[in-house]
Amino acid sequence: xxxxxxxxSGKAHTLSRKLQSNRNPDASVRDILFDRDGTLIEDxxxxxxxxxxxxxxxxxxxxxxLAQAGCRLFVVSNQSGVGRGYCSLENVHACNLRxxxxxxxxxxxxxxxxxxxxxxxxxxxxxxxxxxxxxxxxRRYGLHAAHTAMIGDKGDxxxxxxxxxxxxxxxxxxxxxxxxxxxxxPLPDAxxxxxxxxxxxxxxxxVAVDLAAAVDFLAMASAR
Length: 224
Ligand SMILES: [Zn+2]
Description:
Elements: H1 2-20, E1 31-34, H2 59-68, E2 72-78, H3 80-83, H4 89-104, E3 112-116, H5 132-141, E4 148-152, H6 155-164, E5 167-171, H7 176-182, E6 192-193, E7 206-208, H8 211-223
Bound molecules: zinc ion (ZN).
C-alpha cells in the first residue's frame, strides 16, 4: 500500500500543478462528478449489501489527488433498483455510507452524493442521461459547466455530461468496454484516447482505461 502511494505521488504533484496553474483558467476543471457503480466501485447489479462495496483499483489515490488539488467531488448515480423493487432506498444509503467511510479513511470526502431512485418507466427528470442531477448541483453549489467534468462507464453518463456541456470521460472499467464498442470508440490499451475536439455529440471528450487515466486526461485538458 505504501509503495503504491509512493508511485503515485509524482503524478499527484503534476496534477496539482496543472489544475492550479491557471495557465488557461477558461478550461480548468475544479469540480468533478462521478458515476458510482463501475466507475468508483465494482459494478454489482443492483447492489444492496454494503459489504459488497469494493473500490476499483487506483480510485482512492486518484480521488485523494483531486481533493489535494482543491477539486470538489460529487457522485451522481442512477439507482433504478429502488424503483424496480430490487432494493430499498435504505439499502442504497447504507452502501453510500460504506463508500463514504472507506474513502474518509484516506481523507477523501464528497461534497454531495445524488441519486435517482426511479425506474426508467417513471420518466423522471433526474435519471441520467436527463440532466436533473446536474441542474440541482449547479444551483446548489454554483457549478459552471466549463469548469466541471463528468466521469462514468456508461453511454448514459456520456450523454448526461455532453447534454450538460461538461468535460466528459468514459472509463473502460465496469460496463465501459461494451459501451465504448457500442459508441464506435477505440479502446486504448493504457492511459486515454481523445478524439479531435469537438467530439461528435454522443462521444466523450476522452476514453480512459480507468479513473486514474481519466484524471490524467482532465489535468492535460486543464493545462491546454
Ligand atoms: Zn429520477
